[in-house]
């Protein structure tokens, strides 16, 4: 990168100590407010959140979902104090969601029996869109705002791109294969240059089961249906019974063919899941669209590459599972900057996200990489083309991971979020950990039993199929030996299991962690760190990686309460309000002040929440 292409941001806070409390921890001079915890009503159709788990499925349909994850702030009227927050709800904690769930083991051992209970669980999944405003230094949700809404595990959505309108997606519910119901396990997120939200369907396969014979594709992706996973993750399918309505509502989670054709059953139901889903937050009642061209797998995040007028729009997305791959989608349409403020945003999504080429990454020994296209004429490792195994692009996409196996992609240590440096265009990807890497490393995943994870980065090359990569930082306990602590981390920045990752427009990269290994967790809960990568240079002005000589540039900004993961990142356009999510805390929040610890001996019903960080003097965050 040229010097002119570098961030001028200078981090202006002291790295904070690790923390092990039921409170969040931030640098001095900052405040942290709890905003929109699980169960907060969006409108008058929901009763107030009750501390005993007795809210109904109808309340949950009109209130914030559970387990907040990725999110994005969409300003209204170009304001930094008024906007729409889109929030993912990854999964649920049945113990917190329902009253008396301790008896779960007895009540739900074999089959689920309570319809409202399952509806509530489905409604606690998905996305919330909420209008928020800053007033007197305090963010609040605008109750009953017409743009407030939920997309749940049952909301009707359009399918778009190569898999839509094919026999792979025909179901009783959607005989023409044009629609799917619900979005599940929405973990990471993205957003588009044209003002829409992208939500990523991650661990959806386990929600489905096939009590008959799993297909090759279902086996590859890990749909339930064998051994101890004979039932779906929450056993929703067990409520189907023989009644037609229940079959439609809950039986759809069982993919076993029950009739003569796919129009009689839900064998194709899961083919409507596993995608990047686009939502136009600014348009009420607009249906979400599943962008199938970007591949079908456990999408963690979805990040667009640095935009250039007249060049394709590129999206990156990792498949978060051990030994899975990194993908890139490149649009056929070339970027037209006037598309950044369209009258119909989802039309622009159609233009850039439905037609293009999906690639999977191979990381070579010599710091180069190759993007391998996934098309019918792509060469496989055995010298055939993918056309020898697949009949259509739609078939390739439905079994994206299986096609990627055949072309020789590099198995990674759980690709999570990616982020793009707004100055240099370099792309960063968290590889959270992989304790099952027992006997074969590869250059991009060089540690056996990778408990602590790392962050890899790359620059696109001259052609769409080339890139150059290096490893930016290795997670490690500060007392790890040389082989482990390869980046020279100290007590003030040791971390493990990098997961959430984001750049703000000033060039600051924010790194969030999920389930740090014991060696780090004995010193600190999950956290968020900051660094300005484009300022890390050697004598020749070449960008370098984190090492013992510059590791102080990686600073710990935030530590979450006990038991949580820190995930989701967005910042207001004026950089004065930074939003992150606390997912699955043990015993928090205690009050509106996120830094107030739950007193020992007090037990609160845990609620995932957004936390808004501001500066006491009203200045920009981090600098
Ligand atoms: Fe839901 Fe890959 O974290
Ligand atoms: Ca994650
Ligand atoms: Ca994770
Ligand atoms: Ca999580």
SS field, number of helical segments: 10
Give the class from helix and strand content and strand pairing.
Answer: mainly beta
> Which molecules are bound besides the chains?
MU-OXO-diiron, calcium ion
Beta content comes to 25-35%
Strand order, sheet with most strands? 13-14-16-17-18-23-22-21-20
Assembly of the depicted chains = single chain
Count of strand segments: 30
Q: Indicate the overall shape.
A: globular
End-to-end distance:
23 Å
Stretches where pLDDT falls below 50 for ≥5 residues?
Answer: none
Global mean pLDDT: 96
Structure description:
Helices cover 10% and strands 27% of the residues. With 623 residues, the chain is mostly beta strands. It folds into 2 domains: 456 residues, no CATH class; 116 residues, no CATH class. The strands form 6 sheets. Strands 13-14-16-17-18-23-22-21-20 form a 9-stranded antiparallel β-sheet. Strand 2 and strand 3 form a beta hairpin. The mean pLDDT is 96. The site of one calcium ion (CA) has 7 residues, from strand 9. Pfam families: PhoX (PF05787). This is PhoX family phosphatase. It comes from Photobacterium aquimaris.
